[in-house]
Amino acid sequence: MRQLIRGRTLSFYADPIDTETAYIYHEDGAIITQDGRIKAIGPYADLYDPALPETDHRPHLILPGFIDTHIHFPQVQVVASWGAQLLDWLNTYTFPEETRFAQQGHAPEMAEHFLNLLLAHGTTTAVAFCSSHKASAEALFSAAHARNMAMVAGKVMMDRNAPEGVLDTPQSGYDDSKALIAEWHGKGRQRYAITPRFAITSTPEQMQMTGQLVREHPDCHIQTHLSENRDEIAFTLSLYPKARDYLDIYETYGLLSQNLLLGHSIHLEPREIARMAETGSRAVFCPTSNLFLGSGLFDAQGLRDAGVVSGIATDIGGGTSYSMLQTLNEGYKILQLRGQKLHPFAAFHWATRGNALALGMQDQIGTLDPGTAADLVVLNSRATPAMALRMARAETLAEELFILQIMGDDRSVAQTYVAGKPMLPGMPG
Ligand code: GUN
Ligand code: ZN
Prior knowledge:
Elements: E1 2-12, E2 23-34, E3 37-43, H1 44-47, E4 54-64, E5 66-72, H2 86-99, H3 106-120, E6 123-129, H4 134-146, E7 151-154, E8 156-157, H5 170-184, E9 190-196, H6 204-216, E10 221-226, H7 230-239, H8 246-252, E11 260-264, H9 270-279, E12 282-285, H10 287-292, H11 300-305, E13 310-312, H12 324-337, H13 344-359, E14 376-379, H14 385-391, H15 397-407, E15 413-418, E16 421-422
Parallel strand pairs: 1-4, 5-6, 6-7, 7-9, 8-9, 9-10, 10-11, 11-12, 12-13
Antiparallel strand pairs: 1-2, 2-3, 4-14, 14-15, 15-16
Helix pairs in contact: 3-4, 4-5, 5-6, 12-15, 13-15, 14-15
The structure holds guanine (GUN) and zinc ion (ZN).
The site of guanine has 11 residues, from α2.
Pathway: Purine metabolism; guanine degradation; xanthine from guanine: step 1/1
Protein name: Guanine deaminase
Enzyme class: hydrolase
């Protein structure tokens, strides 16, 4: 099936921090999609074809769908839990909630809600932690597969320091992960992420078997948490007294590579930063979560200068919004507190091509390049009266993007396409 989608198209081919000419923008642009992929992009006048069905999104912007590189699927009912920092928050709210995913029917129901929420916020790919129950990952993968959404996910492995109902064992964590990889990794658009939750909840035996999984499946992603909170770091180092630092635990078990996504990565030692750069391990910035849990201020510029690639993510349910626009908003404010700047072009690059680069998936998602998936978000910069009033004073594309970044949320998402298919009912597309 071929179609033409018309609007103001914006896609990045480089990081705006490195170069002034990083994007291609067509004021009256068009995308032709065929069989779920982008076939062509250019000015509407060049691509117009009377034989094609046409959807006109003008005056809205059309960008690659947002990518969320760190989110917890079993925490949709944890968001906005009051009054705690990381370790108390996990023990009081999060672990008990995740035990519910053992109940028959709960994970499939939540998976539908989760994917509906992602799409309503313009997110077309997420890198998701599931609960420790194999069925939670099965539910998410099958729901994403049914919608043809590119999902990277894994069941968390955790065998200590949490309630019985969310614990696995080194052997069952290994076996369940292995079975999920066999069934889902590379099936349609699904990819598996080997997921040791963090060092606190894994014994050395489990970390050892995690390393084995990583060696046996070198093309899987790996996701975990690193240096989010000072108490977490102190507890972690007490559990692994031989480790030189927090990262050294993951290093000892052979987890460091370009496939590794290290959520938070806030309070890092110079040695850790150097090893992340040398091994290509990715940091993932989770602004709304870091503010909500009072975790700390991510050093985007410092990591970048050291050669570390970073993604940006919501971290629901420590994070407070599914919106990558709101994530960029809070990211901007965190970097302000650090004396750093997040320019709107850099911000929109980060949430699209930048996150695709962090995943090594830039040939599939994150741009509007021909040959990549037709995963799109259509953004309305005048979605609310306050935005419309502010937009009346905007003269440049950068100003418009910044208004979306600071004031936008799901109300600004006019449509979301997954593999060429409009996913929001009742919206044009
Ligand atoms: N560290 C280990 N587990 C979690 C989690 O679920 N959320 C956050 N924010 N940090 C974690
Ligand atoms: Zn997390």
